[in-house]
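Progress report, Aim 2. The chain analyzed during this reporting quarter is listed below.
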Amino acid sequence: MRLLHGTRAVGVSLRPHFLTRRQYDLLAGYSQTLFFTFNKITEAMLANPELVSLVGLTERETRWAEVDPGYAMPAITTRLDAFVNGDEIKYVEYNAENPSSLPDQAGLNQLLFEVKAMQQFSEHYRLHQFRPMAGLLKALLATFEEWGGSGAPHVAILDWADLPTQGEFVILRNYFASHGVPTIICTPDELEYQDGRLIREDFKIDLVYKRVIIHEFFEKYDDSHPLLKAYLNHDVCMVNCFRCKMVHKKAGFEILTDELYRHWYSAKELEVIEKTVPWTRVIRERKTDYRGDRIDLVEYIRKYRENFVLKPNDDYGGHGIFFGGNLNEAEWDDRLVKALEGSYVVQEKLELKMEEFPIFNEKEWSLQPMFVDTNPFIFRGEVDGAMVRLSDSPVVNVSSGGGETGFFVLED
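Predicted structure tokens for the chain:
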């Protein structure tokens, strides 16, 4: 079934994660509100260069973000990473660039239904499951039409070769093709731009489903790359577009939580932000507000390190995340120095609770306490399911050694 991260199976538990209908509706509602709030932030950045500087976009990222992608939303397919505890929901990151693991949920659910206990459970409870791949394809087709295309586009899933997510691309390609959308998987090196068409050999590409990371792409290629020429000339629809980088940076959470920007948001948006978004600031020597007090940012987080987490502004896979409570004073000071030299944010630490899951490997299984995050997929502003990750570390990430499990909503 190709539910793999490299050669490692992503499924690690013999039971799925459950949310009640009320919990899921809260998660979906809050997520959709934040999606449109981030869209509002993008509009403000396009009009105000100072905000672009705040979130840490490079000159080249900014220049390409200013190119009109041919459709209105800055990000079509996104994922919010969240922790759910009862009716409390807290978001820690917004993946607006290229959320992964879309096929995993349905596949893991299918595997879990082979467990007899799960079959018996489903006889007594109404379970709702989701179809994120269908949500993705629907969003791609709607965006292609908005861009000016017609009919079924020829799609290229674009990323580097031999990545651990390659199995996911195969599942997506097969799903798209089975719904009448011709699809290939290719790398940036395979693309050509001829006579106003982006192509890979004899395959003419109408829509690029961009999974390659923008800053990694820019590090390798200059502006003469075929994809950039086609995009600039409006000869290909690309999802997500370069504007997604504006809200993908973790510094966007500062714009949500800083009093300076409070007047931008509606009463409903403010209520959701206050309930769900932890205080976040870009690391640099300055004064700012924290819980109603005016503080010297660096000195305060140095003194109260156990309350904070350091995160790179633009990285993935759980890399470079440090919990102040897990470091001694000297180690934390060293991390602060490096954060000041680079591009980092500090975020208020959440009080996370662990849940017990039956975890298995190739030889055995055992009940283990695990951290669980529930990360809703959002397609053009609509939530459709979630990626559920499990880890014995509070850095809950598959690339950092964590795993996934299935996900259902328990209907009333």
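The longest strand covers residues 365-379. The chain has 14 helices and 24 strands. These observations will guide the mutagenesis work planned for the next reporting period.
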